[in-house]
Design a protein that fits this description.
The chain is an alpha/beta fold. It is about 40% helix and about 15% strand. It is flat and about 80 Å long.
């Protein structure tokens, strides 16, 4: 049982007013009540006029409901001239009992603004009549474990937005050249002596040197063949998120042949970029020639800085239509050239998966990290692997 506080009492009255409007026949759903509570939190501390307009703007939308709303507001808040400060709702934690003895939902009061990672229940989720208020967890939590192949069109749009907001970190490498540093592993005698001239030869201020760091190139090689259709667009969204964090990112697509899409993805409009990629990649949702595509990549890019010493990420289910020996040989070439080879296979998300396909079996000896790529959680794991 949560301890009663002025803040929790204020929240109970806000929820109770939404229920009162519903009892009087006004179409006030759960989403409107949650929006009202968040608006009140943003305006806190509240006066009577602020409270009135926050409620009217969020709880009703039809002009014919204004008269009934005014009457209900006057009766419900007749003795209320102001409310205590209302703080952020972080859900779910300690239940706060609502007015009338009904559960008010999993709500806890903390300082700050309303948490953006929570949403109200949808229209079809709303309880009828005097049912309890329910706060539904955000789409992030609901969709993280759901496979891209099982998403509805609406869920696919949500996941695409969440993938673009992933904090992708490009890999870095330590250089051999030493640089001045506030703290470090090596004592800088020359700079220390130079500083001591300011203090009559006494080395009060010691100087240090340490190895610097540089961004390591990141190369994304995405399979857009027919067998990867449920996952290829989500992986392309991940590539778009990676492009936004640094210039040393290269993106290639392949089905039966290789296509470089780096310049196309280097834009601020993801929808337009993906549309252009769809027109640029002629073999989208076609066959799969992993070995031949890697050979084309290595033949044309092996002498370029974008591939040498990079972290190469291959996103494919490994269902090779070509010769496995060609794939084995090209993977060995790539492993000698790149710093690390990461293979992302959506089929690995199944607990019964075994890499028995000829292409996947041929590639495994040259892979450093083998990850699933079937849902949002697996792409988050990929982000952590890239960050080292």
């Amino acid at each position: 049982m949560a301890t009663s506080t002025p803040e929790s009492g204020a929240l109970e009255r806000l929820i109770g007013f939404g229920r009162e409007l519903r009892r009087r026949g006004l179409p006030v759903g759960t989403g409107r009540i949650v929006t009202f509570c968040r608006g009140a939190a943003a305006l806190s501390p509240l006066g009577r006029d602020d409270l009135y307009w926050a409620a009217r703007a969020s709880l009703i939308s039809q002009p014919e409901d204004v008269e009934a709303f005014d009457l209900a507001f006057d009766e419900y808040f007749r003795t209320v001239v102001g409310l205590p400060p209302i703080a952020r709702m972080v859900l779910p934690k300690t239940p706060v009992p609502s007015s009338g003895g009904e559960p008010g939902g999993d709500v806890v009061i903390e300082e700050g603004l309303v948490a953006a990672r929570w949403r109200a229940a949808g229209p079809d989720e709303e309880p009828e009549g005097e049912a309890a208020i329910r706060i539904v967890a955000s789409a992030v939590e609901v969709l993280r474990d759901k496979s891209f192949a099982d998403l509805s069109e609406e869920e696919r749009l949500r996941v695409a937005h969440l993938i673009r907001r992933l904090a992708v970190t490009v890999p870095v490498r330590r250089t051999r050249r030493l640089r001045p540093a506030a703290t470090g592993t090596r004592f800088d005698m020359r700079r220390t002596l130079r500083r001591s001239l300011r203090t009559e030869g006494e080395p009060f201020h010691r100087a240090w040197r340490d190895r610097g760091s540089r961004i390591r190139p990141l190369v994304l090689i995405l399979d857009v063949s027919g067998s990867m259709a449920p996952y290829s667009r989500a992986l392309m969204q991940f590539a778009f998120a990676a492009m936004a964090v640094g210039r040393k990112v290269e993106v290639f697509c392949f089905g039966t042949r290789l296509t470089r899409v780096t310049r196309t993805l280097r834009t601020k409009d993801p929808d337009r970029a993906l549309h252009e990629v769809g027109k640029q990649v002629a073999d989208w949702e076609g066959g799969t020639r992993i070995g031949a595509s890697l050979k084309q990549l290595l033949d044309e890019w092996s002498q370029r800085a974008a591939l040498r010493g990079s972290v190469a990420v291959i996103c494919s289910d490994g269902l090779e239509r070509g010769e496995p020996e060609l794939l084995r040989h090209q993977m060995a070439r790539l492993r000698r050239l790149a710093h690390k080879v990461v293979w992302v296979n959506p089929l690995k998300g199944s607990p019964r998966y075994e890499p028995l396909a000829r292409g996947m079996a041929a590639a495994l000896p040259s892979i450093d990290v083998f990850l699933p790529g079937h849902n949002l959680e697996s792409l988050e794991e990929l982000s952590r692997v890239l960050a080292g």
